[in-house]
Each structure stands twice: as structure tokens, then as C-alpha cells.
Amino acid sequence: MKYISKKEKINFYAGLSGQNIVYSFIGGSFFTYFMTDIAMFPALVVSVLLIVMKIWDGINDPVVGSLIDRHTFKNGEKLRPFLKYTPLPVGVFTVLIFLVFSTEEDMLWLRVAYFVIMYIAWDVVYTLQDVSMWGITASVSPNSDERDNFVKWARTVGSCVYGIFSMAIPMIIEMVANTTKRSMSLITLVFAVILGLGGAMVSARTYKAQERIRVNVQTQQTSVFESVKLLFQNKMLMLVTLSNILGAFAFGSQLMTYFFKYKIPADFLGANSIIGALGLTTIYFAITGGPGFIGMIFADKIKKMCKGYVNALIFMQAVNIVTRIVAFAIGFDGVNLWIGMALLAIGSIPMGAVSIAQTSIFCDSIDYMEWKTGKRTEGVTFSMQTFFTKISSGITAGLAALALHLLDYKAIDDSAAVFVGTQSAAFEAWIWPLVMLTPAIASLLYIIPLLFIRYTPEKRARVEKELAERRAANV
Q1: What is the pLDDT confidence band of residue 227, given thresholds at 50, 70 and 90?
Q2: For the residues 410-424, what does the mean pLDDT come to?
Q3: 3-class SS letters over the chain
Q4: Residue 287, pLDDT above cutoff 80
Q5: Residue among 139, 85, 210, 203 nearest 382 (CA)
Q6: What is the pTM of this model?
Q7: DSSP 3-state helix, strand, coil percentages of the chain (rounded to 5)?
Q8: pLDDT digits (tens, 9 = 90+) for 139-198
Q9: Predicted pLDDT at 272
Q10: What confidence tier does 131 reach under pLDDT thresholds 50, 70, 90?
Q11: Do the beta carbons of residue 180 and residue 40 sit within 8 Å?
């Protein structure tokens, strides 16, 4: 039996697109570049800020998820109302984060304090929205095959929108600034208003999704402690979360803009080009990440070929390891850079299905915990997804900023005429190994926890069958 209407899907995917436009400002490598080269925070300060903020995320997300699970609104829902009321504050705080009111060194303490306050406020409301948005994917249908298909397209649409905007926004901001001769900080703020606030308002359309699986509130957790206890009983969830945290050591991907700015000549794409380091980074990620869309489309095929999404994740990471090692060996001199990007493009095809596989496993873990304990944990479970997404990006960005500090990096204003050869000897020697090989090392670490997951397709079918019988008996 099918439950989800076409109109419901379109509205949810449109709202999800709006949310990913917002997150493209903060979740990508541009956020680190904004802090170091636009807001002009010292690299060490950026590293500390990013790591401390993600520690806050680690405390905030499970608490928010637990509160969602423990509360039911008068209409019997626990997720949808948050999708209605969180978009506006998410958009407002997104704009305020990108307000650079000074770059003076003697104002550093005030600028840091302002930035931290705005980020914490943004994080709370964004977490409420994100946990509810992905939590509802586990309740939108009791049919696991229909749910898997819904998740597949939600992840495909969301990832594509995030990928396109996280690549395009920095390039367009840079081109507009170069063309209009306006400051990068001003143009960034304008784009934050148009796309950050605008995208947040579009995200309200996810409210059209329906909660079709509801559990009586009396059977739910009675305290944060019980929610956290259930969280740690969910072995599948914890192992996938650990994989993602270990995968955060791919911090070299955050350094691509710095690699292009200080290692690649300004005339790489021709003389008088208005495309700078941010634009080259966009081209790089478009080539090396764009083919991942193919993997999203054929996620179910990869799943069948690998006999489950857990094995599929292992296969994806193995491909990434091989292609990155080969690309590193080829080098970046002249045409070699294009050859290396082509190899990474091939490796990105299966990697495109990573988020789909993870979300499907998360949904399976919610069913499994209901089967095992009688309690559904959409809120706290998907708070872990939000947690590892933000904590991973924070660790990645924090390590990248720390690496810049250890390489004795000194930011040079974008108005300078020459960048190549202006950094330290350590930067010159290590930037290429870092951008190419740290993601390969992270993929190897990512695989290790997955080897301990034991949830076969046969067990999944048994859990779904018995849950359906229990729900029918309680009607």
C-alpha cells in the first residue's frame, strides 16, 4: 500500500531544497574561508572557534532530539509543528552570522563574542528544524520500501541542491565582488539575505509532510536520561555515527581554496580571468563531486549489488581510497591536475549514495528499536544525524584551520596582485598531500565501525512484519 502523495513529495523536496540552500553557506569550505580571509579571524582562533562550537553541538543535538521525543502536540504530532515555526528564526540568524562589522585586531574579542552568540542561536533553531525534518522521513509511511524511496529522493534532491549552491555561491560572490569592486564582506551579506533568509522561508514547505506513524506519548521516554540510554542501546545508530565522526578527518577537502589561491597561477584559466581561487574551487568540486548524482539515482542498484546498504558504504569508501591515492601520485603540474580531477570524478559516482545509505540505516534503526523496546525515537535518532553532520563538519573545518596554523599560514587580502609563492615552506610542501590524502585516510577509518553492524535484509523483513502485526493489533 502506498501512502505518500505526489503533492506531498513535491512540497517536502522543495522545502528540503530551501533548507540546503541555507546550510550551503555554513556547512561547506566557504565558511572557513569566510572566517579567515573575509572576517579576518586568525587561523588559530578559527580552529578553536569551530571546535568549541561543535562541542556545543554535541551537547545541544541529543538534548533537542530527546525533548522532541518526549513531547507531543495537542493534535498528536511531535514533528510537523516545528517545521512550521522554525524557518524564520533560522533565516534571520543566518544573515546575522555573516555580518562583518569590523576587521580591526583590537576589536577581535568583540567580534568573536558576537560571532559565537549568533552561531549558538542559529544552531538551536536549525537543530529543531533539521531533526524534525529528517525525523518525519521515518514516520511518513509504515511501508519501508516506500519510505526508502522517499528517503532516496529526499537525499538526492537535498544533496544536489547543497552541492550546487555550496559550490556556486563562493564563485558567484567572488565574481560579483571582482566585477563591482565591492568588498567580499558586503557581497557575502547581500547573498546571505537573498539566499539565506529566502531559502529558510522556502523550507517551511516541509510542513506539508504527514506523520503517519504515531506512538502513544505514554509509551515514550520520560526523561533525557532515558532518551540517551535508548540512544546508546541503538548499536546500528552508534556505529554509523562513529563512522561519520572518523570520516571528519578528511579535513584536506576544506583546504582546496587555499591550494588554488597559493599554488595555482592566476592565469590558470587564461589572462584577465575574473575567476579566482573560489571559482577554481567551485570548478574542482563540480568536476569531482558532480558525478555523485549518478550514484544517488542508482542507490538501490548499488544496494542490491552489495547486498545491503552497510556493504554498499564499505564499497563506496574503498573506491574513494583508491582513486585519491592514484590522483596524488599523478600530481598537479599542468594537465596532471585535470587528469587527477577526472579520476576523482569516477570515484565520486558511488560516493554520491552515501547519505541515502546512512539515512536508510537510521530509519531501520528506529524500526529496530521500536521492535525491541516498543518505543520510537525519531527525535533523538535524527538528532544524532544532525549531530554527526555538524560535529563532523566542525572537526573537519577545525582541523583544517589548525593545519593552516601549523603550516604558518598568513592570510593575504584578496586585493593583492600575486599569491603564488607567498606562503611558508611548510605550506608549500604539505598542502598537496593534505588535500588529496586526508580524505583517503578518513575513508579507511570510516570503514572500521561498519564491520561490526549485523542487520541483514532477512532480519529487516522480520522486524517490519512483526511491527505491522503489533500496530494492527493496537488499532
Answers
A1: low
A2: 70
A3: CCCCCHHHHHHHHHHHHHHHHHHHHHCCHHHHHHHHHHCCCCHHHHHHHHHHHHHHHHHHHHHHHHHHHHCCCCCCCCCHHHHHHCHHHHHHHHHHHCCCCCCCHHHHHHHHHHHHHHHHHHHHHHHHHHHHHHHHHHCCCCCHHHHHHHHHHHHHHHHHHHHHHHHHHHHHHHHHHHHHCCCHHHHHHHHHHHHHHHHHHHHHHHHHCCCCCCCCHHHCCCCHHHHHHHHHHCHHHHHHHHHHHHHCCCHHHHHHHHHHHHHCCCCCCCCCCCCCHHHHHHHHHHHHHCCHHHHHHCHHHHHHHHCCHHHHHHHHHHHHHHHHHHHHHHCCCCCHHHHHHHHHHHHHHHHCCHHHHHHHHHHHHHHHHHHHHCCCCHHHHHHHHHHHHHHHHHHHHHHHHHHHHHCCCCCCCCCCCCCCCCCCHHHHHHHHHHHHHHHHHHHHHHHHHHCCCCCCHHHHHHHHHHHHHHHHHHC
A4: yes
A5: 139
A6: 0.67
A7: 80, 0, 20
A8: 888 887 888 888 888 988 988 898 889 888 888 898 898 889 888 899 999 999 999 999
A9: 63
A10: confident
A11: no
